Amino acid sequence: MNAPLRRVGVVVMVLFGLLFANLNWIQAYKADEYRTSDYNGRVQVAEYERKRGNIEAGGTALATSKETSGELKYQRTYPGGAKYAHVLGYKPVNLADTGIEKFENDFLAGTSDQLFIDRFKDMFTGDKTGGGNVLLTLSKRAQDVAYEQLRNNRVDASKGAAIAIDPRTGAVQALVSMPSFDPNPLTGHNTNEATAAYNALEQNPNGPLKNRAIGEVLPPGSTFKIVVAAAALENGIGQDTRIPAGSSYTPPTSGTPIRNAASSICPEDEVTLMNAVTESCNTGFAKLGVRLGADKIKEKARQFGFEQEDLTVGQLGEGGHPVAASRTGSMENADGGDDPAALAQSSIGQRDVRMTPLQGALIAASVANDGSQMRPYLVRQLLGPDRTTSYYTANPRELRQPVSGQVAGDLREMMVSVVENGTGENARINGYTVGGKTGTAQSAPDRPDHGWFIGFALDKNGNPVSAVCVMLEQAGPGGSAEAARIAGQIMRAAIADPGGR
Predict the structure, then answer these.
(1) Sorting pLDDT into bands at 50, 70 and 90, what band is 25?
(2) Where are the beta strands (DSSP E) in 415-501?
(3) I need a labelling partner for 323 at 20 to 30 A (CA). Which of 213, 220, 285, 379 fits?
(4) Is the dihedral of CA 368, 372, 374, 375 positive or negative?
(5) Quick count: other Cβ atoms within 10 Å of Cβ 180?
(6) Distance between CA atoms of residues 435 and 380, nearest Å
(7) Whole-number Å distance between alpha carbons of 298 and 289
(8) CB 471 within 8 A of CB 364
(9) Phi/psi of residue 321, each to 5°?
(10) At what angle do helices 294-304 and 225-233 cross, to 10 degrees?
């Protein structure tokens, strides 16, 4: 064979080798990606031939599938519409799925390894066994109340959130974000219409697709004083210890004075820590924060859950809605030393302090549960298509212990005083002990303040039954009082219907 032919032969062999390698690459590494691609029409048809499992709470189907006469046999529907949208998410045809629909997709679709036996049986019977069912922890009554009360709040706030959890287990009893949206138009089989519906929601300036209960961080105002009070209790300051207060306080590094919400609030030079919490004394907590120092306050906030970046809410320990990290922000000078002005403002929940409503509920729940903070979760159980086989049952577990039982007891007494003698009276529930803390937080110089409330309810035996956080964004005057009222309504509903746990 002459040299030119040898060269041609080598080139052909190299090209054949590359082709062979590419085919193996596709078979071994890219097959799943191509098979499950949204652009693979056959996959879509096959996926919709199997009835998707239900998502349920309290025996009620919140997400189900109905049979159609189109090319795609089943269509996902949400009987509750906007009420459960931020928990369930949605399962569209050509858009990205979200929420529980996304996190439990394999089980709902019937493609999970856990459901292999069902698929194996189908090979012999020719059936298409439906997907598995996901049972949530939600209290239907608490969810309904949270949704309706937020939507019809008495201060005309257009944005906000509410979340309630069982302090003993971490089970989420209610989770609502306002404004919400109806997921049904997003799951229609006319993809042009579904895309148009999604684009309208995405472009809405009020952000209805945002999950404000776990994904929005805002200054928490005076609700953060519970964290500062916890740090004080652990550093030699008791409920009856008198701390400096007064009508006004100007930190050494700032010309801007900190004042109380009203002239009648702690105008005296000293007040007890109990009174400072009950009255929500800004000057007392600003001075207390400077006295304690940034390290102690930031560490105590971290122990309550601030700065955590990997928390999710779905199953226990894996997957679920990602939770935005709450932050304390900087309280130091450029040289690393404490900045009294920043520290004073931060100690009343302003400046760079940012918190999610879930974090607020976790603080209240920790206080109610003797200092033990349980890991929040939404998925209670996974049931097979036959509804008799359980593939997962939540086993509640502790996330952290922010404070001792003694400190938690002191904080409980102070938070109960807020509801019985202070700004949280709207949260009262007959026959139950309710504790809480209101918060009013500045949003911007030209915008109304945010209104917050965190709180808990104890039964007659002192057992915690619900912990809640309500946030009304840019609610203006009366926002925190309205948040307290809504919180009381939600906890009352959770007492009547505690949901699954």
Answers:
(1) low
(2) 433-441, 450-458, 464-473
(3) 285
(4) positive
(5) 20
(6) 27
(7) 10
(8) no
(9) -60, 125
(10) 110
Q: Which residue is it, tokens 């300051």?
A: 237
Q: What is the mean pLDDT of residues 249-276?
A: 93
pLDDT at res. 446:
86
The CA angle 239-338-410, to the nearest 5 degrees, is: 15
CB 353 within 8 A of CB 219: yes
Claim: this prediction has a pTM higher than 0.85: yes
Exposure pattern of 352-381 as b/e (b: 16+ CB <10 Å)?
A: ebbbbbbbbbbbbbbbbbbbbbbbbbbbbb
Helices (H), ranges, 327-404 = 340-346, 357-368
- Neighbour tally for 452: CB within 10 Å: 33
pLDDT reported for residue 293: 96
**CB-hemisphere CA count at 13 Å for 337?**
3
Closest-CA residue to 84 (of 105, 56, 111, 104):
56
Output the CA angle 144-472-274, nearest 5 degrees: 105
* H helix or E strand, kind and range, residue 92: none
For residue 179, cis peptide bond before it (omega within 30 degrees of 0): yes
Note the pLDDT tens digit of each residue in 386-403: 999 999 999 999 999 999
Whole-angstrom distance, CA of residue 210 vs CA of residue 215: 7
* Phi then psi dihedrals of residue 36, to 5 deg: -100, 5
Whether the per-residue pLDDT at 39 is higher than 50: the answer is no
The secondary structure of 157-216 as a DSSP string is -SEEEEEEE-TTT-BEEEEEEES---SGGGG-S-HHHHHHHHHHHHH-TT-TT--HHHH-
- Angstrom CA distances, 64 to 76, 142, 166, 184, 481, stand at 6, 21, 27, 11, 38
Q: With 50 as the cut, is the pLDDT of residue 17 above it?
A: yes
Strand pairing class (74-77; 373-374): unpaired
pLDDT value, residue 253:
81
Q: Looking at the annotation, which residues are catalytic?
A: 222
